[in-house]
Amino acid sequence: MDYLMIWVWLGAVVIFGVVEAMTAGLVSLWFVVGALAGLAAALLDAPVAVQLVVFAVVSAVALAASRPLVRRLQAKPPEATNLDRVIGQTASVTETVDNRHSSGAVYVDGKTWTARSADGSVIPAGTQVAVQRMEGVKLFVEPIKQTTEVM
Q1: To bridge 38 with a disulfide, which of 10, 27, 50, 55 should be the other Cys (CB 3.0-4.6 Å)?
Q2: According to CATH, what is the number of the domain 82-143?
Q3: At 103, is the secondary structure helix, strand, or coil?
Q4: Where are the extended beta strands (E) located within 32-89?
Q5: Where are the domains of the chain?
Q6: Phi (first) and psi of residue 108, to 5 degrees
Q7: Are 111 and 89 in contact (CB under 8 A)?
């Protein structure tokens, strides 16, 4: 029995295991499994070439078998941000929106935001507006067209 190769495979298991423990993602877990298979081959007194082939094949199979599972586990649904929540919503102008004077504020989603007019027009306080887009921390809004029905 070749004790040197047993120690080599044990060292490989430890090194790959430490590398895996030090990283946030799965980086070398498959090589730990492959090194354990190589260790098993060494314990069965297989030639070094066979041990290396067993290591490579088992590592590749472990990688191929686990990647779909890992992707599914790591896939997270997109989390809504402030941008996602306010775009398209109706807001109330709390401070007259005037792009020329760099002033304006709207209240939407329970928060007061700095606002600018999407088309450059002045929008008086109290007007209902639709949020069109966000640039930095400013919302770009436009007045909601009020329709009046004639009977």
Answers
A1: 55
A2: 2.40.50.140
A3: strand
A4: none
A5: 3-74, 82-143
A6: -150, 140
A7: no
